[in-house]
């Protein structure tokens, strides 16, 4: 039964595809932020970026990273990813406290962008976390469904707040 589910599962719910789609969305928002001259637009984009990254880091830490660690026992990649998340979360909290008119707003968003680019590169490179996950016995279709369900739950909670 599980193998049938795996075959019928769309690539959008594959764990790696879902996480990479999140990466591409945030990259697009960072790029738009860099090109924008409008403080209000920068504020909206930064808000979108921070909200998306908060949800993304949560689903990775709650679901993907523990499954990765169990399947691969690769503590180095796991620990590095967790530490990178911690740094990003601290910067996100600072950005959320600022207004787009603050002297350090653009700089903090730019540094967050650089941190995320590095983190994404580490996860997506050959031999990185995603490549190792694909080589492991992780069921990426089932994990993708779990990630998507938790992501939707967190998005609903954020909208209700």
Describe the structure.
- The protein has 161 residues and is an all-alpha fold.
- The chain has one domain (12-160): Four Helix Bundle (Hemerythrin (Met), subunit A) (Up-down Bundle), CATH 1.20.120.
- It has seven helices and no strands.
- Helix 2 (15-35) packs across helix 7.
- The chain starts with a helix and ends with a helix.
Range of strand content: under 5%
Please describe the biggest sheet, giving its number of strands, its sense, and whether it closes into a barrel.
Answer: none
State the order of secondary-structure elements, H for helix, E for strand.
HHHHHHH
Overall structural class, as computed from helix and strand content, comes to mainly alpha
How far is it from the N-terminal to the C-terminal residue, by CA?
A: 39 Å
Q: Just give the CATH class.
A: Mainly Alpha
The CATH topology annotation reads as Four Helix Bundle (Hemerythrin (Met), subunit A)
Layout: helices, strands, pairs:
Blueprint: H1 2-8, H2 15-35, H3 39-72, H4 75-97, H5 105-124, H6 129-135, H7 140-160
Helix pairs in contact: 2-3, 2-5, 2-7, 3-4, 3-7, 4-5
For the structure shown, list the relevant keywords.
mainly alpha; Four Helix Bundle (Hemerythrin (Met), subunit A); globular; 83% helix; 161 residues; 7 helices
